[in-house]
Every structure is written in structure tokens, then in C-alpha cells.
Design a protein that fits this description.
single chain; alpha/beta; five-stranded parallel beta sheet; 8% strand
């Protein structure tokens, strides 16, 4: 993973310089042998995922493990923990037997009675420490408001006991500071973009001619929410962007953005839609796992072809990364409705 040049930050994360500097400082402390936990809080679309992605991009010397809360898995104990530790299980044998057995049962590796939650927490702490023994470890847990209770308890337990293992544990959540099991941990709260940054972001997303009245209307409707700034213009025709903007509908902002995604998905070929549906259902965003899952479905698009855009091209965001996550946030079912 190549390190992101510092000068790119204003182009991809407008208005987030202080937050990026805070994350840079956290990584520097972990490189020095300390461990740190941080909770990034904010409303949907405010940029939590982008900041977690920035952290991974600026940590090429770290191992990176990811997990993402999924509404459909909130009732499955240890589901998120399974995501996070799946590639660490080769170190399971390094743990003391009681911890190894408890975590093995929790993750479905062995049979047994319901494991003691304390032992599971201690085992996860030990497992992360073992993984970080030779190289710093960065753990990114997004959409933490949707973690299953057992995973949330174990990860909060670990976050409060990290010391000098060279582990960074960063959560992204919508929950306010007083809610959820992450209360009391160090936090970074994301505010909406100031007017100048909102204008700069919109200009970077729409470099062509944009009527000033339309620009003002989009900024007003978005309220400084970065995702809304990037997606609301897709609801406007080219002529509308040049001059004139229809009145906003009665739907809440998040619903209007989701509706915009649906309108953009609907014209795509059916196989492209199937691949997007798979991507939406695969929370960690692991390309290798995605292509493995896509194999049995036959000839799905892996790149642009005549008359068929590649999914990443159709939905590429300003930061050049992945398709918009609101498709997942607002439920995979909303993608199915477009097919």
C-alpha cells in the first residue's frame, strides 16, 4: 500500500486537516511502541469512513485489520469479531489455554458452552498483542453502532486495556458520546463542513460550469454534509446545473441521497447490478473475497467493456476509492429494488 502524499489531503478530505493531523499523531504514537484507541463520531455521510480510509492509506508500515457493523448481523454474537480476527487465527495457539478455548468457541472453531465474556475479551487483547509483536497493527471498525453486543463488549474491553502493544484501534460510529459501549473512550467528533470547504468540495466534484444559484442551493440542502454535497448534484440534469434547480422534495436528506443512488443504479446492466449487490453485502470491502464470491455467478464485469461501465467507474467518488457506502448503510435491499 503506497503512502498518500500530504499535498493530496485538501483535494480528498476538504475541511478535515485538523482531524487528519490528529490521526497522524495517533499513528506516530503507535509507531513509537504505544497503543491507542479512538472513536470517530458523526452523522451519516459526515466523513467517518473517509477518515478511516485516510488512516489506512497513511499507515503502509502497519498491518491493517477491518470490521464493519452490519444491521442484519446485530443478533449474531461475535459476528464482527469474526470479521476482525479472521486472518489472525494462526496466532491463536500462542494464547493460554483458557483464552484460546473461549475465543475458539466464540468464533465457531470448536464446540463448547457459551464462553465467558471476560475470557473472550482477554483473548482478543492477547491476540492483537501477538499480531503486533513484529509489526504495528491498525484495527478499523466502521459502523460501530451496528456491532453485535458480544463483539462490541469485547472490543470496548480491549480498547480500555491497550497499553504498549503497538496497536491502534479506531472506531467509526453514529452514536453520540453518551451512548453505546464506547462511551468514555477518546473521541474525535466530526462537524459539518464550513461554507468555504463545502464550496471547494463541490467544485472539485463538479469542475465544469455550475450556476451560482444552483451551487448555493446544493450547499444549503446539504447542510455541509460531505456525502450529500457529492451526491445531490446527481439528481440535477446537466441543464439544471448550468442554470435552474427544481424544488427539493419532502424526503429527508438521507432518503434523497439513497434515491439518487437508486436512479444511478437502475440504468446499469444486470450483471453490473449483481456485482454491486455483492459489494454491498460484503462489509469489509475485501476485493479478493468479492471476486471469489462472484465466481459462481458467471461472467460478471471486472472492468469497462463496450456498452457496459465498470461498477467502480459508475460509482467512483471524489477520493477515487470505493462505491458509495450509503448503499450498504441504507440496507442492501435498496439496491435490490433497483434491479
Amino acid at each position: 500500500m503506497a503512502e498518500k502524499p500530504a499535498e493530496e489531503v485538501p483535494l480528498t478530505l476538504w475541511g478535515r486537516r485538523q482531524e487528519c493531523e490528529a490521526l497522524d499523531g495517533l499513528l506516530a504514537e503507535v509507531r513509537a511502541g504505544r497503543s491507542r484507541a479512538l472513536v470517530v463520531r458523526g452523522e451519516p455521510g459526515i466523513g467517518k469512513t473517509a477518515l478511516l480510509g485516510y488512516t489506512a492509506d497513511t499507515a503502509p508500515d502497519f498491518q491493517v485489520a477491518r470490521a464493519e457493523g452490519v444491521e442484519a448481523e446485530m443478533e449474531l454474537p461475535f459476528a464482527a469479531l469474526h470479521q476482525l480476527t479472521g486472518r489472525m487465527l494462526g496466532q491463536l495457539g500462542q494464547l493460554p489455554a483458557p483464552q484460546r478455548d473461549a475465543l475458539g468457541v466464540a468464533l465457531g472453531l470448536s464446540s463448547g458452552s457459551v464462553p465467558d465474556r471476560f475470557l473472550v475479551g482477554v483473548a482478543v487483547l492477547g491476540l492483537l498483542s501477538e499480531m503486533a509483536a513484529g509489526q504495528p497493527l491498525l484495527c478499523l471498525i466502521d459502523d460501530a453502532q451496528w456491532l453485535d453486543t458480544a463483539s462490541a463488549q469485547a472490543l470496548a474491553f480491549v480498547a480500555r486495556r491497550l497499553d504498549s502493544e503497538s496497536v491502534a484501534l479506531i472506531f467509526g460510529t453514529r452514536d453520540p458520546a453518551s451512548a453505546g459501549g464506547l462511551a468514555g473512550l477518546p473521541q474525535l467528533t466530526l462537524e459539518r463542513l464550513a461554507d468555504g470547504d463545502a464550496r471547494a468540495l463541490l467544485t472539485s466534484a463538479l469542475p465544469g460550469r455550475l450556476d451560482e444559484r444552483v451551487r448555493d442551493r446544493i450547499i444549503e440542502e446539504s447542510g455541509g454534509n460531505p456525502l450529500a454535497l457529492l451526491e445531490l448534484p446527481y439528481r440535477v440534469t446537466a441543464a439544471g446545473l448550468a442554470g435552474g434547480f427544481s424544488a427539493a422534495g419532502p424526503l429527508p436528506l438521507a432518503d434523497r441521497i439513497e434515491q439518487g443512488f437508486q436512479q444511478r443504479i437502475a440504468p446499469l446492466p444486470e450483471d453490473t447490478q449483481r456485482l454491486l449487490l455483492l459489494a454491498a453485502a460484503e462489509p469489509p470491502g475485501d476485493p479478493a473475497l468479492l471476486w471469489q464470491a462472484a465466481g459462481p455467478l458467471g461472467d460478471l464485469p471486472v472492468g469497462p467493456r463496450p456498452g457496459r461501465p465498470a461498477p467502480d467507474r459508475a460509482f467512483r467518488r471524489t477520493n477515487g476509492k470505493s462505491p458509495p457506502r450509503l448503499v450498504r448503510i441504507r440496507r442492501v435491499g435498496s439496491v435490490c429494488a433497483c434491479r
